Amino acid sequence: MINFIKYRLWFLAFSLSVIVLGLYFILAHGFVYSIDFIGGGLIEFDASADKSAKAERLMEKDYPGLDFQKTSTGFIIKSTSLDKQRADKVAKNLSQELKIKKTRFELVGASVSSTNVYKIVVAVLLAILGILGYVAFQFKEWRFGVAAISALIHDSLVLVGLWAILGYYWAVELDVLFVTALLTTMSFSVHDTIVIFDKIQEEEQQGSFGRLSERINWALNLTMMRSLNNSLTVVIMLSSLIILGGESTRAFAVSLMIGTITGTYSSPFVATPIYYLLAKKE
After folding, report:
1. Where is the Protein export membrane protein SecD/SecF C-terminal domain (predicted)?
2. Which of 225, 123, 267 is nearest to 184 (CA)?
């Protein structure tokens, strides 16, 4: 039986160092926000790979201030300064030059973007409250609830911090899909945590071990392979999506990948050590 609890402080120190690094990048450099948050315009075109490459060269020459992004079916042009008049001009020029068709145009105003931010904050808070309520009802002990929420906050901070790092070095945008990945990460993290806590509680009720650390180590050893196997299937699927998917879904898949790995780590190595430290004081 592996003594995981013996290394609890090392696990927590590693997590804290990753969170501190992420917070530094958030405070020092911030995020690269998409038009969902700061407003702007987006045009999508249906085009072949050859015409997409020609469009990219034309955009660099004639419209250097607009962002160009290839997709599996064509390409997207977007910018915070892209209004309807300018978008119509760009779409007309590209359509005439390359004989391609505009398939989508979106314009997000400042008021809409601020509404999106408000809704996202509310969604995250409701998710946290819902998870806290479920854990409290399931285990009827406050230590389990505090440990589960601590792991949830840990996963959120790690994902958000790493996204700030990716934004700083590779200009990866923070958009609505990232928020979807964040909420998915929260649910994934708590799911694994509940499985471990349920096993710990079961061992306590059966009185299998005298010491708390032995009960926790036994529960972790029993559930570790299950958690790893579940996560591995998700990682394999997301890896194929990152490698073979288009540009529009790659960032979303990367955020889910980070969330999956973080959630798998935090359940045994963050939530469980925190529960042990809280229960040990009693």
Report:
1. 96-280
2. 123
pTM, two decimal places = 0.87
Rounded to whole angstroms, the maximal C-alpha distance in the chain is 78
How far is 171 from 158, CA to CA, in rounded Å?
Answer: 18
**Tens-level pLDDT at each residue, the chain (282 residues):** 899 999 999 999 999 999 999 999 999 999 988 888 888 899 999 999 999 999 999 999 999 889 898 887 899 999 988 888 999 999 999 999 999 989 989 888 766 677 877 888 888 888 888 887 888 788 878 899 889 989 999 999 999 999 999 999 988 999 889 988 998 888 888 888 999 999 998 888 887 667 889 999 999 999 999 999 999 999 999 999 999 877 778 899 999 999 999 999 999 999 999 999 999 866
**Owner of token pair 């045994």:** 268
Q: Which domains are delineated in the chain?
A: 5-34+112-280 (1.20.1640.10), 40-108 (3.30.70.3400)
Residue by residue, DSSP assigns 187-241 as: HHHHHHHHHHHHHHHHHHHHT--SSHHHHHHHHHHHHHHHHHHHHHHHHHHHHHH
Q: Give the relative orientation of helices 176-206 and 110-139 as an angle to the nearest 10 degrees.
A: 10
| Radius of gyration of the chain from its Cα atoms, rounded to whole angstroms | 23
Q: How far is CA 140 from CA 58, 221, 275, 281, in A?
A: 63, 24, 14, 18
